Amino acid sequence: MAITDSQRYQLHRSLEEKLGPDEANTLMEHLPPVGWADVATKDDVHQADLRLTGKIESLDVRLSARIDNVETRLSARIDVLDHRLTGQIESLDHRLTGQIAGLSTEMHRTLRTNAYLTIGGTAALVTLVSAIAGLTG
């Protein structure tokens, strides 16, 4: 049975009359603020602690599983991106190597052509100088 505020007040007044105000106050302070059925015992607190600990452990297991799942998916995506980037880099490397080889071939051809022109021009100049020297000499 729950005690009402009015009943508490009446009890306090009766205790004051029989024990005095200080003793009545001391005794009233030892009563729970609610009915005895609403007071938690050590066993109640222990049981609540066990339930809470179980729930926390369950959440920890579920959270760890989710984290592992995310890490696995993220790792797989990183592997796919790595594979794609590696392929693109290799393709770019082959294209650049081909372009460099083409430029190198073109440069050698140009140098060879210029060398032949220079040699031919020098030979023509020597022939011309010799002819002029032969005419004047």
Structure commentary:
Helix content is 87%, strand content 0%. Helix 1 (5-19) packs across helix 2. The protein has 3 helices and no strands.
Determine the N-to-C terminus distance.
149 Å
Query: How many domains make up the coordinates?
Result: 2
The helix/strand series, from N terminus to C terminus, equals: HHH
Strands, count: 0
- Low-confidence regions: none
Quick overview of this protein structure:
This protein is mainly alpha-helical and 137 residues long.
How do the strands and helices of this protein lay out in sequence?
Elements: H1 5-19, H2 21-29, H3 42-136
Describe this protein with a few key phrases.
mainly alpha, single chain, 137 residues, rod-shaped, 3 helices, 2 domains
